[in-house]
Amino acid sequence: MIPEAREVHLSRKDRKVLEACCRSPVTLQRDLKRARIVLLAADGRSTRSIAKEVGVQPRIVSLWRHRYADHGLEGLQDKPRPGKQPIYTKTTDKRILKLLDKPPPQGFARWTGPLLAEALGDVDVQYFWRFLPSHKIDLVARKSWCESNDPNFTAKAADVVGLYVAPPAKAIVLCVDEKPSIQALERAQGYLKLPNGRALTGQSHDYKRHGTTTLFAALEVATGKIIATHSKRRRRVEFLNFMNSVTAAFPNRKLHVILDNLNTHKKNEDWLKAHPNVQFHFTPTSASWLNQVEVWFSILQGQSLSGTSFTSLKQLQEHIDAYVNAYNDRAEPFVWTKKKVRQRRFKGRRITQL
């Protein structure tokens, strides 16, 4: 049964708004029908005649006549709907995060979606695939870090970081280290085509050795440029020969050289006396990651050495030299950022922080 028709009285302002809505080409169909219903009702038309002209049920016409009569133009807008209640709430999220802080079940290396679902019991595994990315949690990716137990960690680290942040005036800061035993491996290479049509680069598991080279490298902190030489071994004599070439590249300049705690880097007082413009700075024990040249070695491995094949040691050395030249053409200084590490501490061991 259709309710009794309500009289509709339009103000001049509301009429202009509804007529403009009817003329606009971007008006939604639902809004267009509501505007036409109110305009026709204001002209004294009956509910059934309006329904027939607009193409809706009479009860729809009656609804919008009443809504406009009671609330004006605001009554023509949809009311908010409660929607379906979520199955999982913030309490569920807190339970998942609390569970992730616990070790995985015995015998497993890490948590997985199915293991989490099994442990909680009342959460579907599909929810974890939505929850984990939304909280920027990756259960597969792995990062490693190294903590130092050097009792003088703070002082040594502050010395090295101070050279990065505020180097002495008119001085050159260099990070020096070596990458030993880089192998010249010859592997068969090609492409693998998978059944789904995807093509991947690949290489054979078997290989032929053509010797190794040790790469000595010095990174200039201010510019990011690299000085590098090859050597067969990594003894003290090779290290000092490399330092001679470094000092020759920066004549009459004060050099601050950052090194790790390798034995060949220490006890070189005689050489330092002969080179008074050079001062060595050592990273804390188990903290060679403070040496920026280690970052460059990682870049070298990823961009130049991984997945390559060499038929001779000379070819390997020429390949690395070509990469160093190309790198120096676009070199930029490193910008370091600090990341917060959450870990389970070793029993009876305290971590010293910078």
In words, what does this structure look like?
This protein has 354 residues and is α/β, with parallel strands linked by helices. It has twelve helices and five strands. It has helices at residues 12-23, 29-42, 47-54, 58-71, 90-100, 113-120, 125-134, 153-165, 236-249, 269-274, 292-305, 313-329, and strands at 171-193, 199-220, 226-231, 254-259, 278-282. A five-stranded mixed beta sheet has the order 3-2-1-4-5. Strand 2 (199-220) and strand 3 form a beta hairpin. Helix 2 crosses helix 4 (58-71). The radius of gyration is 36 Å and the shape is elongated. The model is unreliable at 350-354 (pLDDT under 50).
Silhouette: elongated
Head-to-tail CA distance between termini: 79 Å
How do the strands of the widest beta sheet line up side by side?
3-2-1-4-5
On the 0 to 100 scale, the average pLDDT is: 87
Helix/strand structural class: alpha/beta
Count of individual helical segments: 12
Helix content: 25-40%
Q: How many β strands by DSSP?
A: 5
Element pattern in H and E: HHHHHHHHEEEHEHEHH
Give me the Rg, rounded. 36 Å
- Strand proportion: 15-25%
- Unreliable runs: 350-354
- Largest sheet entry: 5 strands, mixed
